[in-house]
Predict the structure.
Amino acid sequence: MSVSALTAGNIPSYPRRIVIAGMDGCQACSVCEVRAHGICSALNDDELAQLAKAAVRVTIPPGRQFIEEDSDAGEFFNITSGTVKLFKSLPDGRRQIMGFVGIGHFLGLAVSDRYAFSAEAIDQVRLCRFSRERLETIIDEFPRLERRLRNEAANELVAAQDQMLLLGRKTARERVASFLYGQMVERYSDDIPRNARLIFPMTRADIADFLGLTVETVSRTISGLRREGLVTTGAGHEISVPTPSRLQTIARGEE
Amino acid sequence: MSVSALTAGNIPSYPRRIVIAGMDGCQACSVCEVRAHGICSALNDDELAQLAKAAVRVTIPPGRQFIEEDSDAGEFFNITSGTVKLFKSLPDGRRQIMGFVGIGHFLGLAVSDRYAFSAEAIDQVRLCRFSRERLETIIDEFPRLERRLRNEAANELVAAQDQMLLLGRKTARERVASFLYGQMVERYSDDIPRNARLIFPMTRADIADFLGLTVETVSRTISGLRREGLVTTGAGHEISVPTPSRLQTIARGEE
DNA sequence: CGTGACCTTGAATTAGCTCAATGACGGTGG
DNA sequence: CCACCGTCATTGAGCTAATTCAAGGTCACG
C-alpha cells in the first residue's frame, strides 16, 4: 500500500478541499495547538504563513497505517494530536516499534528518499501533511527551521541510543521500568510527583514490540512490579507509580 | 575523566602548537584525506579556510577513551583516519556499542549539552577537534553546512533504527550476518563482489557489545557460519564471504 | 448475551548466557 | 632464538531468563 494512496484517499470525514481552504491566511497555523511546540515554534508569524500554505490537515482513524516502510518518502508530517507508533518489520512478521510519538512531533527525519519506518495511528490522530519538496524549499528560506530540524534529529538520536542500550543490554524488568519511567517523563517532564498516574493509549503488544519482549513477558513483569508495590494498575490502561524514583533506579540498572 | 583533560594533554608525539601552525592558510584542510568526505565536502575552499581556523588535529592511540558519556559536550570531532567505537554503559559494567565509525564521520550530533555516549579509539585514530561554540558560529554562516549536518543526522537515525530492529527482534545468527553484511557495505558500498574479504579492527568482545550478545555466542555463531560454508576465516581478524547475497538473505530474516 | 480483542497466568521449551578449560597469537625480556 | 605472559578466541557443559504454547478471564460493543 503506497503512502499517496493512504493520504490522498480514505479520509471521507475530512475532504481535502475544505481542509486547504481552512489553512488560508495562516489562521489555522497561528491558532494551532502545536503553535508553541515542534518545528512551528522556530518561526515567527510571517514565516508561519509560508509554512501554512504548504500544509494540509488530515485526520487519521485509530489503527490506520499511513506510512509504509520503504515507500517513496514524498511527504513529511507534523502531529497535532493523538499518538502514532513508528515501526519496522521483518518478512516473517516480527516487529520492532521505534517509538511512540505525539503532539508536536515532526515525522520524516529518518528518511532518505524512502521512509525508514512504517507509521500507524494508535488513537485518532490529527496531523499536518507537507509535500517534501515544498517543505525543503521553505527550509532553504528559513535557516532557523533548518537548525530546529537538526536539533530534533539530535534529540531523536539520543533517544534512539538510549533504546539501543535498553534492547541490547537490559533485563525485562529494567526494560519495563524504563518504559514506565520514560512515559512519566513525557507526561510530567521535569520532576515527577509521587503517585504519578498514567493512561497508556497503546496495548501490551505494542509495549512488547517496543521493548523487544513478548506480550506475556510484559504482562508478567508488570504483575511482578505490582506485587512488589512499585506500581498499581487500574481500569483501562491506567498505571500509577507511588515512588517514581524507585522505578528510575531499576530503569538505570542500579539494582 | 574530563574530555578536555583527554584531548588537551597526553598527545606527546604531536604537540598542539605545531598542529595549529599546520592548519594555517587552509593547507591542512584543502589537502586533507577527508576533503571529499564528511562535512568538509559541503564547503568550498574559502569556507573551508574558515573551518580550518577552528580545527585542531589530534592523534589518539589505540584503546584510549577520548569522550566520556555525560561529560560536558564542549567539543565536536571529525575523524580523518582510524576507527572509533561509540558506546554507553550501565553501572554494573554492561556495555552497548552504538556503532563503529571511521573516516569522514562527524562526532557530536547525538548531543545536548552533554555527550550521550563514550568514545574510544580502536586502532590509531586521527581527527579534527572543534570547539563546539566556534563550530556553531561557523554553521550559522554556512547554511549548506547546517543542511549537511541534518543529512548526517538523518542517516545516523536510519542506521540507529536498523540497529533497534536487530537488537529487539533478530536471532544471534541474523545479528552476526547483519553485522558482516553491514561491514561489507561499508567497505565496498554499492555491490559487493563474491569472495569479499574483510579485515576487522575490532575484537569479538566489541562485536558482541555491538550486537547485544556475549563473546561466546558471537564466536559460536561465526563458527556455525563457517561450518555452513557461508564465511571463511583467516589470520588476524580476517573474514571472507564467498556469497554475500546468502549472508544478506539471512541478515534480512528471510530464512 | 454472544463475539472478538486484549490481558493474565501456568507449564514446558529453548536460545543464548555463564562458567570453565584450552588453544592461538603477539609482544617482551632473558 | 625461545620461554613466558597476557590478551583474545574457541569450544564444551550446564543453567536460566525469556519464549512458546495453552487455557482462562475481562471488557467493550453490537
User: Anything to note?
Assistant: The first strand of chain A starts at residue 55 and ends at 60. The radius of gyration of chain A is 19 Å. The mean pLDDT of chain A is 87.
